[in-house]
Amino acid sequence: MKFYTFPLSPNSLRVVAVANQAHIDLEIVPVDLTKGEQMKPEFLAMNPNHKIPTLVDGDFVLWESTAIMLYLAELKPRSKLVPKERHERMHMFKWITWNLSELQPACVTLQFERFVKKLLNLGDPDPREIEKGEANFHRYAKVLNGHLAGREWLVGTGITLADHHVASSLAHAEPASMPLGGYDHVRNWTRRVFETKAWKKALKALRH
Predict the structure, then answer these.
(1) At what angle do helices 184-194 and 161-168 cross, to 10 degrees?
(2) Containing H/E element for 129?
(3) Which of 60, 96, 136, 198 could form a disulfide with 20 if both were Cys (CB 3.0 to 4.6 A apart)?
(4) Is 100 exposed, middle or buried (0-12, 13-18, 19+ CB in 10 A)?
């Protein structure tokens, strides 16, 4: 099973963490976005969006990190990444879609302005974008912080796809200077997620 990825990508990190928890071996195939490798014809044949990540399992090709996470979880149901109880399962999907539409875009803005631009020498951060990103971040961090009060995980009593998905948006919180001060429940929960064996292994691979 080949996994085409750019190591710094939070979307890729969450898939790798899920694979680690499910004990699924992925053959990591780096795609260097800084060199435009995502625009090569052979990659576009797999993913016409020219984006990562992309999974290839035999003759089956799947893109979009959320779909890939669900696919891996379905391959290994014993990993308990998806709750069996219907309401908990729907809450899991709720937090995943909430992250995609609300929290992640705010995190991406701050990540791009304060981290990616510096990394790729794309110029100075745009104060207007940062102001917008921080306003949205605070709006949704309050929602997440309130939900996590008295909870160990987002849904039920164990880590699910929801935790992997939402936490990935905060993977670069430090270099992006995301304003997590005052959101202790979010900070403690994020620490729990990133201290799991699945995430430690994924983050270790990122550092190397």
Answers:
(1) 110
(2) helix 127-148
(3) 198
(4) middle
Q: How far apart are CA 132 and CA 69, in angstroms?
A: 30
Domain boundaries defined on the chain: 2-79, 86-196
Model pLDDT for residues 8-45, shown as the tens digit of each residue: 899 999 999 999 999 999 999 999 988 999 999 999 99
pLDDT in tens, 78-118: 999 999 999 999 999 999 999 999 999 999 999 999 999 98
- Per DSSP, the residues of 50-103 read --S-EEEETTEEEESHHHHHHHHHHH-GGG--S-SSHHHHHHHHHHHHHIIIII
Angle among Cα 27, 33, 35 to the nearest 5 degrees reads 115
How does pLDDT run across 181-208, given as a tens digit for each residue? 999 999 999 999 999 999 999 998 765 4
Q: How far is the C-alpha of 148 from the C-alpha of 152, rounded, in Å?
A: 7
Continuous segment of H or E residues that includes residue 203: helix 197-207
Select from 3.40.1280.10, 3.40.50.300, 3.40.30.10, 1.10.287.130 the CATH code of 2-79. Answer: 3.40.30.10
Rounded CA-CA distance 95/91 in Å is 6
Predicted model pTM? 0.95
Class of domain 86-196: mainly alpha
Residues 186, 148 contacting (CB under 8 angstroms)? yes
